[in-house]
Amino acid sequence: MLVRPSRVAVVLLLIIATILIRRSSDSCYENPGNPSSIPVKQLYLNDYGRQHDQKARAEIVEPSLKAAPKVAAEKAIVMGRLARDDVDWVAQDLPDWERYIYTVDNDNSTLHTAVNKGKEAMPYLTFIIDNYQNLPKTMAFLHSHRGGWPEAWHNDAPGYMAKNMLDKLKIDYVQRNGYANLRCIHNPGCPGEMQMFRQPPQGELEVEGYMLEVWQRFFNSTAPPHIIGTPCCAQFAVSRDQVLKRPLEDYVHFRRWLLETELIDDISGRIMEYLWHIIFGKEPVYCPGVEECSCQVFGRCDEYTYKAPPTQSSDTRLIEDSDRRRSQEVFQGQK
């Protein structure tokens, strides 16, 4: 004899069946490749808790999650700035260059660094890390000074103008050579600014006394050189191919040192200033002749435009560069 189920029992069975079906349907949209319940962004939150290192690590671990890149620029200017700096001149003077200008002291800026540390090295490395998969063909790394004496004394061009420097820059040479210092004049920097085994360390900040430890951290399997020399002042052009000769992890590693170091910015920034040419494949002492540099980098081959600063002359001046904390006798004359 069959027993007809009660209406209450039927309703309960329908409710249970509905719940089971919904659970099964929801499970179809779970990501089987990411079983962790922790959001990806939180996985990296404990490492400095900073936006840019999270992003850099995500690029290494999960490149498939990134959107399709835009078309890479032919040439771009990379620059760090303080929020108070007027950098409108870059678009006005150099309109044919794409611009990546990182503000180091304002997190609300469209492009900004995680922290303000290490002088220009932090925005430079941040740009490379952020754009490693889609780098411009040619990159010029510059300071934010437009020109003029003494603010832009490091600009090796008529009127100390950045425009005059980049307008003459030989892009084909940058592509062939991979790297070009934008300063031809040797003083300061050549022939041997940094001597990491010299005792006691010399120089205003005794920067060379810290160089060996940094060298071993950056290039641990490479024997440290006794002398490092190159024209100052961390302004250079580099090709995409040259940047890509190092893996992304290297640049993340260099920036991690900047984030972690307890050295003051004047020292950490100066250390990086004398490592860029090595990072980009040149010998520790990289001091092309002034006339050779003038011809190859700027195409001034028929005129003796640049001249190494004399040691004693009415055309020299002792300046205090407040941005770089460097007392340096530099050439001050018409070029």
TrEMBL record:
The name this protein carries in UniProt is Uncharacterized protein
Alphabetized UniProt keyword annotations? Signal
Provide the leader sequence positions: 1-21
Please tell me the species this chain comes from: Mytilinidion resinicola
Compositionally biased spans, kind Basic and acidic residues: 317-328
Listed Pfam families? DUF3431
The answer to whether the entry has keyword Signal is: yes
Database matches in InterPro entries: DUF3431
